[in-house]
Amino acid sequence: MIINVAGVLHGEDFGPEKRLSQIRPEVLKTVFEVNAFGPLIVAKHFSSFLRHDERSVFASLSARVGSISDNRLGGWYAYRGSKAAQNMFTKTLSIELGRLAPNAIVVGLHPGTVDTGLSKPFQGSVPRDKLFSTEQSVGHLLAVIDGLTAQDSGKVFAWDGSEIPP
Questions:
Q1: CA–CA gap between residue 1 and residue 50 (Å, rounded)
Q2: 3-state DSSP call for residue 45?
Q3: Helix, strand, or coil here: 82?
Q4: Taking the mean position of all CA atoms in its chain, how far away is CA 161?
Q5: Largest CA-CA distance found in the chain, in angstroms, rounded
Q6: What is residue 30's predicted lDDT score, i.e. its pLDDT?
Q7: What is the mean pLDDT of residues 71-77?
Q8: pLDDT at 97
Q9: Average pLDDT, whole number, for the chain?
Q10: Which domain holds residue 46?
Q11: Is 51 inside any structural domain?
């Protein structure tokens, strides 16, 4: 099992864009490099460990906001776009890896809102029962992974096991 947990939403000199006028190419590049290209490069270098006849899993933290059909608020251009690209890479990888290892599972996982530095600036509107500790989040995600089958490969799942639409 390989789980990629790297991701970026904001940094010292940038945050999620609320308007088109806030788009900065250098921020787009940084966010896409980490959120979209990073998991794909990890898969490139480690997928050989998943190529066998037994069940194997490549999971990468994604986000509900990467769902194109679920976008009702707009904004967050770099983060949303990078997570949508990541989800497409996940689907594409699942097809290739599925040909080589039929029991391989490639998925994106939305951990919910976790009490980390990534979500800290945005926690004010999150209900207390929906703000997870890292331990809670890991428990939820491992339970989701445990329940996956090869037919789930290429999809994105939330912390509660529900499928997130593309």
A1: 7
A2: helix
A3: helix
A4: 14
A5: 50
A6: 98
A7: 95
A8: 97
A9: 95
A10: 1-86
A11: yes
Tokens found for residue 109: 């996982």
- Does 111 map to a domain? no
- Taking each helix axis as running N to C, give the angle between helix 77-100 and helix 38-46, from 0 to 180 degrees, rounded to the nearest 10: 20
Nearest to 80 by CA among 97, 63, 92, 93: 63
* CATH number of 79's domain: 3.40.50.720
* Model pLDDT, residue 72: 92
Parallel/antiparallel/unpaired status of strands 104-110 and 2-4: unpaired
Nearest C-alpha neighbor of 157 from the set 38, 61, 57: 61
Tokens representing 46?
């480690």
- Measured CA to CA, the distance from residue 21 to residue 12 in angstroms comes to 19
Number of domains in the chain: 1
User: Which of the four pLDDT bands, split at 50, 70 and 90, describes residue 124?
Assistant: confident
CA distance 64 to 51: 29
| φ, ψ at 40 (rounded to 5°) | -65, -40
pLDDT at 131: 87
Whether 21 is in a domain gets the answer yes
